[in-house]
Amino acid sequence: MVLPLVAVPARGQSPHQHGPGGADPQPHQRVEACERDFEQVVADGRGAGLAFAADQNGYPGPLPVLELKDRLHLTAEQEARMRTLLEAMFAESRPRAAKLADGEARLRRLFATGRADDGVVRAAVADAERARAEVRLAHLRTHDLLTEEQRRTYQRFAGAPPPSRSSGAGSRTGRSRAASAARGGSGPS
C-alpha cells in the first residue's frame, strides 16, 4: 500500500502566512505582476492563453500561425487570409479588453473604497466575467485554413500534443477539414 505524502503546516503555522516566519514573503507582488502582464497582453489584443482550448486541439489563431508561417509553408493566399483574420481579431478583441479592464478596475475600487457589499460585488464580478467571456470568444473564433500537414507541423513547433480527433458526432475528419481549407472554407465561428 502506498500512501500519498501531504505537506501539513507545523502547529501554529498557516500555509498563507506572509512576511517573517511565512514561507513566501512576496506572493502578492508576484500575483500583481502576473495580473499586470495579463492585462497588458489582453489590452494589446493578444489572447494570453484565452484560446488555449482551440490552439491545443488543432485550431491555432492567426497570430501564432503567422509567427510560424515559414515553417508551416503557408501559401500566399493563406498568409493574406491570416493577416485579414488577425486584424479583424484585434479590432474585435481590443475594445472588449478595455471593457474587461474597466470591470476589473471597478471591482478593485469597490474594495479600496470600502463599498464592497455582497450585492455590489456580485454585480461587478458578473460584469467583469461577461467582459472576459467576450474577449475570450473573440479569440476562439476558428478559421479552418490549414491543411492537416500544416496542423501537424504547427503542433510540433508549438510544443502541443497532437490534437485528438474522433469521428464521433460533431467532429470532422482530417480529410474533410483539408478539403474545406483547400476550398477556403472556415470552421465554426
Question: Which characteristics define this entry?
Answer:
8 helices, mainly alpha, disordered N terminus, 189 residues, Four Helix Bundle (Hemerythrin (Met), subunit A), 59% helix
N to C succession of SSEs: HHHHHHHH
Shape: elongated
* CATH fold group of the domain at 44-158: Four Helix Bundle (Hemerythrin (Met), subunit A)
> In the CATH classification, which architecture of the domain at 44-158 applies?
Up-down Bundle
Structural Rg: 22 Å
For the largest beta-sheet, the strand count, sense and barrel status come to:
none
What structural category arises from helix and sheet content? mainly alpha
Detail the poorly predicted runs: 1-15, 166-189
> How far do the termini sit from each other?
50 Å
Task: Give the tally of β-strands.
Answer: 0
Assigned CATH class of the domain at 44-158: Mainly Alpha
Number of helices: 8
Mean pLDDT: 76
Describe this entry's structure for a reader.
The chain is mainly alpha-helical. It has a domain at 44-158: Four Helix Bundle (Hemerythrin (Met), subunit A). 59% of the residues lie in helices and 0% in strands. It is built from eight helices and no strands. It has helices spanning 27-43, 52-55, 62-67, 69-72, 76-112, 118-139, 148-158, 174-183. Helix 5 (76-112) runs antiparallel to helix 6 (118-139). The longest helix has 37 residues, at 76-112. The N and C termini lie far apart (50 Å). Residues 1-15 and 166-189 have low confidence and may be disordered.
